[in-house]
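Posted in: Structural Biology > Protein-Ligand Complexes

Title: Requesting predicted complex, phosphoric acid mono(formamide)ester in pocket

I'd be grateful if someone could produce the 3D structure tokens for the following input. Sequence and ligand are given below.
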Amino acid sequence: MARKDLLDIASLHREEIEFLLDQSTSFKKLFTRSVKKIPALEGKSVLMLFYEASTRTHSSFEVAAKRLSAEVTNFDVAHSSITKGESVRETIETLQAMRTDYIVVRHGHPGLPAMIARQTTASVINAGDGAHEHPTQALLDAFTIKEKFPDPRGKKVLIIGDILHSRVARSTSTLLQKLGVEVAYLGPGSLVPKYGPATIPRFTDYEAAMAWAPDVVYLLRVQMERQDVQFFPNVREYHRVYGITTARLAEIRDKGLYIMHPGPVNRGVELCDAVMDYERSLITNQVENGISIRMAVLDWLTPGGDFPKQEAYAARQQAGSSLLMP
Ligand code: CP
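-- Reply #1 --
Done. Output follows.
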């Protein structure tokens, strides 16, 4: 069951997901102890390689790695030779020479973490690649839902917003379906793709989507930075039609629904301010659970372990040739 890399949710087996969720439960128990650190990754090194901005994913990976006693290095993209035109390939070749054990990477290009994983013996973790995947977000979302619904089979999660550009929607809906959760999409027709599993109901009307009777409403961030054309008239109109307004929050409270959001929240767009004080908002739980999930992932992966080209790599290195895999 050991894996070298975590690149997507699509290729994860249900047993692997269940294992990671169980491990996360164990790691979370450490958080209430006075000493939160364990020596699981003592002597190992984790490199954080973030080409895109991040608060939650970056900081929780760093905390997770440190709680497992790993050494963490933050690669400063803005002040690296990348600004002088160094290619990703050359960066990875350089990092490979430093023999880091784990590389946590976020990049705007889909598939880039997988490309890096093929070129290094380090375990590569995809911390978000363009609109493709964000596997650890999906795992922490599932973990957060399972804390409220220990057997989530048959529960319903309505994902609202910019599905088209969302790596969170792709990873989280794939994972939830693997756990037997029903998923539906709601958003403007321009942001809800028609392709993808036909089993997922698609709504463009808020009332119709709420009639589907979700247990959880999961708001996505409107990703202005990935929208090169206009997908809806303006953010005010978006909030009125698809946002959780004060009036809608009152209905949601009456129905006892949970609210989730991966962050960062565009206040006044996806959610009204009052959601921050809503007793069934799980947004803070999601952030907290990001640490134990990422501890579980780091602890689970095996750097170089089942990497078929490891011997070839060592031979190439000995011969003084390129450190990159062919
Ligand atoms: N959810 C998430 O990926 O947040 P950050 O961009 O802050 O990491």
